[in-house]
């Protein structure tokens, strides 16, 4: 007899379904069990408000976690950047698979690069983090741009450019890669220009903390380097006491000497959305071997950033 299917809770968006489908396949391979997708609508999917207004943190996650707690699904897949930094005791992130490209990208009219945009170019993004860094970049180069707050799925956002309402929109490379639309990217934004959101490009596979068998199976999909990197990034975000709608960027990357990974570098940025003030710092240390060491790396950099005035740049502090 065939084993009962595992139920994977997912948001309904095209991107969520694509990434959950990829995880379902991988989980099916390691467990030998079929996996069925259970579509769940979250508050973030139905609300028409801007993310910064609805608080950002957890709006795409709460309904999935409630379904897990009620036993309606066996595990859930989240975009890691949507996860609040505090982890509920009854749930565990059993796996963080290898990260996709963490960079932000632009889809622009006439295949223009960021540096080619005309004076007064209108760039759409729903993210205060992207606004802060794009405006700072433009200021430093004497460019004249306007960042315009937008919401909606990939089709809606790219549609603004196709219809001529905006000159460009900013999206995550990982999302476009996962839905097979990376050929629409006109410019990859260097992380030196725009640091991504903490955890961007990574997925979190979450299940009940008391399901030892499932935790063990899912753990086979875990990538320790990705886990260390995103743990450091999220620790920085938590120590700044910022929610995921705050203008905070962070990226931990591995510094290798040939094939040997030597160190981890963590970069962080926080700024005012108009780009007039940015606090941007980095720190480098041994690759964290433990969860605690990765957390410490993030906390240390956050402390330095707060000393440099980061606290005053985040608007509403997350409660």
Structural description of this entry:
By secondary structure, the chain is of the alpha/beta class. A hairpin with a 6-residue loop joins strand 12 (260-271) and strand 13 (278-286). The protein has helices at 14-31, 43-46, 62-69, 128-140, 154-162, 173-178, 212-218, 224-239, 291-307, and strands spanning 6-10, 35-39, 75-79, 91-95, 104-108, 121-124, 145-148, 168-172, 187-188, 203-208, 248-257, 260-271, 278-286. The longest helix has 18 residues, at 14-31. The chain starts with 5 loop residues before the first strand and ends in a 12-residue tail after the last helix. It is built from nine helices and 13 strands. Residues 50-56 have low confidence and may be disordered. Helix 8 (224-239) runs parallel beside helix 9 (291-307).
Task: Supply database-style keywords.
319 residues, single chain, 13 strands, globular
Task: Give the SSE layout.
Layout: E1 6-10, H1 14-31, E2 35-39, H2 43-46, H3 62-69, E3 75-79, E4 91-95, E5 104-108, E6 121-124, H4 128-140, E7 145-148, H5 154-162, E8 168-172, H6 173-178, E9 187-188, E10 203-208, H7 212-218, H8 224-239, E11 248-257, E12 260-271, E13 278-286, H9 291-307
Parallel strand pairs: 1-2, 1-3, 6-7, 6-8
Antiparallel strand pairs: 3-10, 4-10, 5-8, 5-9, 11-12, 12-13
